[in-house]
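Board notes (copied after class):
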Amino acid sequence: QFQLVESGGGLVQPGGSLRLSCLASGFTLDDWTIAWFRQIPGGEREAVSCHSSLDGSTYVDHTVVQGRFTLSRDNAKNLFYLQMDSLNPADTAKYFCAADPRVSNLGFGCRPRAFDYWGQGAQVTVSS
């Protein structure tokens, strides 16, 4: 059974940092496309950063990330991460990790409906 389990959310002050982790089980991440999405109440789930091992393509929402967030993976541990720095209240959302073995061509976008496997979500609240 394929499963993704997130950790690392929480409350942080503006300007602070958080690292979200996503642990995969039931499969190895090496050849899978990984992604982080976020969603505010009443809003759509939007891609933050995505990377495909299939073709090396990436997607970053630069209007959101602005050089502050970094997606990385540790295939040996079957983990991937979203390092978030210089957080501000506009980053408050529920963050979801996702993975899929078939998604590629991320230059055309990173769409939630393309991913079959999801973490449970981690709330990130940026507030003083």
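Comment from the instructor: The chain has a mean pLDDT of 95. The two ends are 40 Å apart (CA to CA).
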